[in-house]
Amino acid sequence: MNNWRVKGKGRINTNKTVSFTFDGTAYKGYEGDTVASALLANGVHLMGRSFKYHRPRGPVTAGSEEPNALIGTSRAGQGQFEPNTKATTQEIYQGLITTSQNKWPSLNFDIGEINDRLYRLFAAGFYYKTFMWPKSFWDKLYEPVIRATAGLGKAPSHDDPDTYASRYLHTDLLIVGAGPAGLAAALTAMKSGADVVLVDENPELGGSLLFENATTLNDQACDEWLAKAVAELAAAPNVRVLTRATAIGYYHENMVGVAEKLTDHLTRVPDGAPRERMWRIRAKEVILAQGAIERPLVFGNNDRPGVLMASAAQTYLNRFGVKVGDCAAVVTTHDSAWFAAFDLADAGVKIPVIVDLRQDASQDLQRGAAERGIAVRLGHTVATVKGRKRASGITICEVNAGSQSDAVSSIACDTVLMSGGWTPSLHLFSHTKGSLIWDEENEVFLPGEKTERCHIAGAGRGLWGQQQAFDDGKHAALEALSALGQSATPNAVNVRGDRTGTGVVMEELPGAGGGSAPRAFVDFQNDVCAKDIRLAVREGMRSIEHVKRFTTTGMATDQGKLSNMNGLKIAAKQLECPVPAVGLTTFRPPYTPTTFGSFAGYHKGELFEVTRKTNIDSWAEENAAVFESVSLWRRARYFPKVGEDMDAAVLRECRQTRASVGMFDASTLGKIEVVGPDAAEFMNRIYTNPWSKLAPGRCRYGLMLGEDGFIRDDGVIGRISQDRFHVTTTTGGAARVLTMMEHFLQTEWPELDVWLTSTTEQWSTIALNGPNARKVLEPFVTDADLSAEAFPHMALKECLVAGFEARVFRVSFTGELGFEVNVPAEHGRALWELLHEEGQKHGLCVYGTEAMHVMRAEKGYIIVGQETDGTVTPADAGLTWAIGKKKPDFVGKRSLSRPDMLQADRKQLIGLLTEDPNTVLEEGAQIVEVGDTAIPAKMLGHVTSSYWSSALNRSIALALVEGGHHRDGGAVDIPMPGKTHRANVTGTVFYDPEGERLNM
Amino acid sequence: MLLIRCPYCAETLPELEFEYSGEAHIARPQNPSDEPDDQWKDYLFIRSNVRGEHAEQWRHTHGCGRYFNALRNTVSDKFITTYPMGETRPDINCAGEEKNEQLAR
Amino acid sequence: MNNNTSLESLPATGRFSLRCKEQNIAVLSRALGLALPTKISLQVAANGRTALMLGPDEWVLSCECDDRPAIKEALAKVCESAPHSLTDISSRERSIRVKGREAAALLNTSCPRNLAELPSGRGVRTIFDSVQVILTREETDQYRLDIWCSFFPHVHALLSAANAEFKSGV
Amino acid sequence: MSRFSALSLLRGAISGHKNVEPQWPNSELKSEYDVVIIGAGGHGLGAAYYLAKEHGVTNTAVIDKGWLGGGNTGRNTTIIRSNYLYDESARLYDHAVDLWDGLSQELNYNVMFSQRGVMMLAHNVHDVQSFKRHIHSNRLNGVDNVWLSPEQAKAKCPPLNISSTARYPVMGAAFQQRAGTARHDAVAWGYARAAAARGVDIVQNCPVVRISRGADGAVNGVETARGFVKAKKVAVSAAGGTSVIMDTAGVRLPLESYPLQALVSEPVKPVCPGVVMSNTVHAYISQSDKGELVIGSGTDQYVSYSQRGGLPLIEHTLAAICEVFPSFRRMRMLRKWGGVVDVTPDRSPILGKTPVGGLYLNCGWGTGGFKATPGSAHVFAHTIAKDEPHPINAPFTLSRFETGRLIDEAAAAAVAH
Ligand SMILES: Cc1cc2nc3c(=O)[nH]c(=O)nc-3n(C[C@H](O)[C@H](O)[C@H](O)COP(=O)(O)OP(=O)(O)OC[C@H]3O[C@@H](n4cnc5c(N)ncnc54)[C@H](O)[C@@H]3O)c2cc1C
Ligand SMILES: NC(=O)c1ccc[n+]([C@@H]2O[C@H](COP(=O)([O-])OP(=O)(O)OC[C@H]3O[C@@H](n4cnc5c(N)ncnc54)[C@H](O)[C@@H]3O)[C@@H](O)[C@H]2O)c1
Ligand SMILES: Cc1cc2nc3c(=O)[nH]c(=O)nc-3n(C[C@H](O)[C@H](O)[C@H](O)COP(=O)(O)O)c2cc1C
Ligand SMILES: [Zn+2]
């Protein structure tokens, strides 16, 4: 096993072997390996297939910018499948199962590869130009085929068993990236009084020091210095280090989202451990030390397995102890690939050639190559890579004034290392809308104007080399500390053997042009080639945003980390336009793809959202209630007895309530205590009704409009004393109503001496309704007279009920004699049980919201939100009587006189009785003139409520109908699929129109 | 998530504690019944919707509960200042030519 | 990480919402026998009564349950001279105490506030997940949350889930 | 302009696409036009196209401050449906669906209009009532929309969680089969290409900074970053910038602009066949032909032109998606972005004439105007050409806010997208 391991190299734990599988084959690696490093150590380069052409692909990087080596992962025996995971960042653990993607039947033999032969048909944007004929083929054939071939991995098919966490964290200084710049910043800030958080996406700190480790730092070997630095930071009380933690987005006011992976590297996951945690870190100052990403070169077949970034090869060697091949040719425009070549050569890899497009290279480099017996071809370029599933050689030729010379020579190799220079990582900085400035000399974008309190350090500022990075990190920390009013005396880091390089930036390599030349890839995953970008420009896509969207370059899962700059250069050249004038596309969060789960955090299942329950809810649950959800509350809808369905239960609940007595948990109604000397005046302004004359101890139905004149809420309101009202609102409206009241009070009428307090949850509210309601309640009330004379309809009393301090309203939402008893919430259930027991003497039944709805509809009482929908005025709803005629003003009054609010054709609330008394109309059914049922029909309105009425022994309905108030006695049609129902228009009160039962 | 300074609490706190409540300084007419339809419409619906410095109401709902006013730049989302309800809009001058610049995105 | 954070549901107490304009604070203070604090988040205790200032015209008074009639009576006497609103909210909310070295971190799983900026002995209304709460820092590592009853189970469940996470050590 | 066809594609393939021509020329701004349309989104470009095709008005410029299609047309979740409640809306959006069907052929540009259906989930009794009301109203308006049981809903979208113990159980769904999605960029490009072919100038990267009015009060041109342009008529189709530009003509609007966010996941093989919307848990999802899950989030609470938006909304949206589709919890967000949507008080658009002569307005589509693109453009062109509204857009006046005849889909508990 592991034939490509290099003894004595790497930071992995070779004492600990780990096995995992890839496409069913078992492999062994070491603790600390990624899937990619372990597979490479086993000689496996072919790890995936590209999106469009299904070309064979291997890893091209060793980090989170990887576009090619995407795999599915799952945990043995437990599923937890996940697609599109980067083999280059997924750490191996015992029992990890990995699979390749986007292939059929196998990775090695993939039918989809046919696309690669037909590539010319699949030029950029081809689908916009075809698949249009015949028209019907799109839905039936073309699109389904396109969809089936698209996508990379498969979506998970099972519910995710894992949990996710989140946390807010406040800190003085957040440092993103723990390379030399980030480490220097952290080591400096550590010495101040500031709280510091250092995050890095890798499992260990070090950044480029993990692979560029030939230097000596303060006279210690690089690895040794790093270990000490890490230990120092770990021991510092003011520093918190998060590894496997990716800063995914830089949001407003220095809030950075950091997604931390907690368990995906563990063989055994501790109980209760979430899989990932989303930190929302709010920092006073931020240092972005994200480093730079090495840029690929664009040449023929540059996507073949075995073609890697030079720094990736260096990483596999120095961090993982893996050589990526036996014989690695190097193609570069930058010095850094030379160093990579030297490292590999020193580890025993044959370097047949370094091809550098530049005409010159430093003496040091050339000497280094010569010492190692490496052939150097300056002023040369690579024409193409040979081999299909693995590179087998390259052809090179001279760069001749930018065009290809005839003298092509072939060089055999199994690996190609490339470097097109480095791109500073400014993704997070760009999230803040900070500006980027084009640096002509180094041909990179650098940070310009800032919009947040942040500092960029290291390679992110285009500073190559460890010494510069250390110095810059330290400097950034001092700057940040001074902004925090802090200071520190930093220790310098002196670098010996620093291998700073320079280079030039190319677009497509000169050898790659021409019609028949093999394709040169810019965006590996999405198979965007240089010629696609040129084609897009020729098709008129002159904005880089158009180029992106037309070719999909930069839209793959690496979000252009490798491709954007090359794409931009090629487009700029085709446009004959300077690079900065063309500009970059927008960087958007997240920095690397991030699971939905980590955004959702704890919000899963029961914790997804609050479920509010009343104090009496537990009784309902024990008594087999069926619940419904109303805003955040859950309410008992009905209480079926064994064998009953909803209709039967509701019928019984209504019947028994009207015949004797029913009991209902009304605790969810919103309640607001309105208190102060100006309470009545305030009520006058907010509600349509007049309140000044309402005597303490009395209550009244209140109607509330929005300023636009439409009904917003209603409820019964009691005057407890001269300066105190007990307001009730609808269940769903409670918060809204209080907000609206506060808004008017604070912003328009601050002079009023009145205050509002939500008392919804202070009270449990039990409604007793029915001719025997008084009999049930009376035994529990000793300090008040409940008789009809002493306690008439629409009166209220504060008294003791069963010893609890209560507010009893004599009101009714059913049309029967009714009491609503409010007691302190914690006594709700106790009182409920007492009343229930007492009620048994009278055949009391418990009813739910459904029976309540039926009974109030029988009485023509509206439900806001059912009879109204935000477009209904008091007049429409037949509630003109609730408007205080003499009041000069109340919220919404002025709007009621706008022209369209007075039209006769407005939809108005009416009653409907179907001709067939057994037909219960469907709520929401539409209403037309008699006989006017042809489609499209002129609709007059709709059925808002419709029930079987046990009291009337027939169906009833309420409806909003155009000009409804003038239709009394007329008929309308309700066309339903298959049958049209006819109904007669009536008043809205179906039951006990005289209201006699209220006064029993 | 924005950070907002509540002028009553005198603390700068996360947006999650606050509710936005629309444009500021739109006073309810003294006698709505006297308003002509078009002016009542202005009060109800017309908003300046400024690209740039916007005077707006917020409520520290999950804090002191108070409504207050703020000046905020709607392009950068940055608060310029916040001030108690009832105070007039502070005269903080922003750079001239803002409109053209605003239009240019 | 050694976890020693505890969650404790607290017994009921008397609670009032008290509201008045600035000019009447002195009168009400005298009536209550307690100097109502005049800076938001400050808490003052005397005679078994505690007042926490939540807003410029708002306090929450805590007391023994059976001290409530006395408070009502005392304030009713000054109703004319010092208009105010006193509303019993004792049954509206329940409290939970979070205590231990990691109490603040535990709360910060769902509370976006910077708890370091809340000194011991102070309290504020804030938000915990989607739930409005009153958060009082009783001692350095001890906090109390006052929560409307119907939201209590949700807050408790979130804190318990977070506690399990802390216990797992990751 | 040459026609796109399978054959032309094949020819191109053989020749190495040697003879491609720009899909639209890089027009210079002329000094005078019959019609200037501000905003090269789908609505503006479409209006230019229909003006040319149906009304013979070709001396038109569509001027955009950025790149064409770069506004909300290029950043929306592409949901198309017409199952709106009110007659006015149903007619408008259904007119659009009729035009969507066949738009690829009409424009000779595959806009990938895909009628995979839109399913709107009901999670409580109120939702059920509201959706049934929609269904009945739609049926009588000739708009297809049917009720599905939870099981039927799941059959249409297998990853859907229909467990009755869910916090928000699925109690059924309203389903419109003719609804679906289209490729947003292609819509802008297709209209641009077809309009350009009929002589329309498309001028990009040229902000209009002022609408100019003559002594008679009527418009006479626009001031742009590249100078003054005379115009007989000016049509504003500048979503995300409407209030600002209309203010320069002295017209103040009932609009507020909010950031609206959307996101995509990494691409996966087909898993979510149609569009699923849940208003109650605030989640909208579909899967694009490329394989990403395209997910719509909500608007932030405050007015903003920043095309950004905050993290809490995204967290809430994804929590909701994971509730409805628990197997997606391990999917990853690839990219999220924001747009700026102009919202009216009744959530319905303003589409028609203005108090200013020669000035026409198309705005206020809020979170849901992509679906209207061809229909809106079509009747807007009519309005501009004839100086009077088409019957379909006649109700969508600016004056309704004064008289009170609002078309309040939002109040009627319709969903936004
Ligand atoms: C995240 C998101 C999701 C959405 N999801 C859906 C959905 O699923 N279904 C749906 O139907 N709708 C959806 N919408 C809404 C939909 O995108 C828009 O309503 C629709 O695209 C508007 O099209 P338009 O052509 O009017 O505007 P845009 O495409 O925005 O075009 C307006 C153009 O005007 C330009 N402009 C502005 N001011 C000026 C000026 N002064 N000078 C020159 N040019 C100017 C802008 O640059 C822009 O290009 C969504 C919107 C967003 C942001
Ligand atoms: N030889 C050359 O010419 C050349 C060119 C470029 C860079 N370099 C080397 O690069 C180094 C620069 O140091 P540096 O500290 O600026 O960069 P670095 O690359 O050493 O460290 C950056 C770190 O940030 C991490 N990171 C990036 N984005 C992140 C995110 N969003 N969340 C969490 N972590 C993130 C990276 O994984 C990495 O660990 C020097 O050592 C220099 O020698 C050399
Ligand atoms: C329907 C749709 C699908 C998208 N799919 C992708 C995608 O697969 N990859 C990607 O990077 N962006 C995708 N995007 C997002 C765009 O890259 C871009 O973010 C969006 O158009 C807004 O533009 P901006 O981010 O440049 O402001 C998609 C956008 C839409 C509207
Ligand atoms: Zn405050």
Automatic annotation (TrEMBL), chain A:
<dbReference type="InterPro" id="IPR006222">
    <property type="entry name" value="GCVT_N"/>
</dbReference>
<dbReference type="InterPro" id="IPR041117">
    <property type="entry name" value="SoxA_A3"/>
</dbReference>
<dbReference type="InterPro" id="IPR023753">
    <property type="entry name" value="FAD/NAD-binding_dom"/>
</dbReference>
<dbReference type="Pfam" id="PF13510">
    <property type="entry name" value="Fer2_4"/>
</dbReference>
<dbReference type="InterPro" id="IPR036188">
    <property type="entry name" value="FAD/NAD-bd_sf"/>
</dbReference>
<dbReference type="InterPro" id="IPR029043">
    <property type="entry name" value="GcvT/YgfZ_C"/>
</dbReference>
<dbReference type="InterPro" id="IPR041854">
    <property type="entry name" value="BFD-like_2Fe2S-bd_dom_sf"/>
</dbReference>
<dbReference type="InterPro" id="IPR006277">
    <property type="entry name" value="Sarcosine_oxidase_asu"/>
</dbReference>
<dbReference type="GO" id="GO:0032259">
    <property type="term" value="P:methylation"/>
</dbReference>
<dbReference type="GO" id="GO:0004047">
    <property type="term" value="F:aminomethyltransferase activity"/>
</dbReference>
<dbReference type="GO" id="GO:0008115">
    <property type="term" value="F:sarcosine oxidase activity"/>
</dbReference>
<dbReference type="InterPro" id="IPR013977">
    <property type="entry name" value="GcvT_C"/>
</dbReference>
UniProtKB/TrEMBL annotation, chain B:
<protein>
    <submittedName>
        <fullName>Sarcosine oxidase, delta subunit family</fullName>
    </submittedName>
</protein>
<dbReference type="InterPro" id="IPR038561">
    <property type="entry name" value="SoxD_sf"/>
</dbReference>
<dbReference type="Pfam" id="PF04267">
    <property type="entry name" value="SoxD"/>
</dbReference>
<dbReference type="InterPro" id="IPR006279">
    <property type="entry name" value="SoxD"/>
</dbReference>
<dbReference type="GO" id="GO:0046653">
    <property type="term" value="P:tetrahydrofolate metabolic process"/>
</dbReference>
<dbReference type="GO" id="GO:0008115">
    <property type="term" value="F:sarcosine oxidase activity"/>
</dbReference>
From TrEMBL, chain C:
<protein>
    <submittedName>
        <fullName>Sarcosine oxidase, gamma subunit family</fullName>
    </submittedName>
</protein>
<dbReference type="InterPro" id="IPR007375">
    <property type="entry name" value="SoxG"/>
</dbReference>
<dbReference type="InterPro" id="IPR027266">
    <property type="entry name" value="TrmE/GcvT-like"/>
</dbReference>
<dbReference type="Pfam" id="PF04268">
    <property type="entry name" value="SoxG"/>
</dbReference>
From TrEMBL, chain D:
<dbReference type="InterPro" id="IPR001763">
    <property type="entry name" value="Rhodanese-like_dom"/>
</dbReference>
<dbReference type="GO" id="GO:0008115">
    <property type="term" value="F:sarcosine oxidase activity"/>
</dbReference>
<dbReference type="GO" id="GO:0000166">
    <property type="term" value="F:nucleotide binding"/>
</dbReference>
<dbReference type="GO" id="GO:0046653">
    <property type="term" value="P:tetrahydrofolate metabolic process"/>
</dbReference>
<keyword id="KW-0547">Nucleotide-binding</keyword>
<keyword id="KW-0560">Oxidoreductase</keyword>
<feature type="domain" description="Rhodanese">
    <location>
        <begin position="35"/>
        <end position="79"/>
    </location>
</feature>
<comment type="similarity">
    <text>Belongs to the SoxB family.</text>
</comment>
<dbReference type="Pfam" id="PF01266">
    <property type="entry name" value="DAO"/>
</dbReference>
<keyword id="KW-0274">FAD</keyword>
<protein>
    <recommendedName>
        <fullName>Sarcosine oxidase subunit beta</fullName>
        <ecNumber>1.5.3.24</ecNumber>
    </recommendedName>
</protein>
<dbReference type="InterPro" id="IPR036188">
    <property type="entry name" value="FAD/NAD-bd_sf"/>
</dbReference>
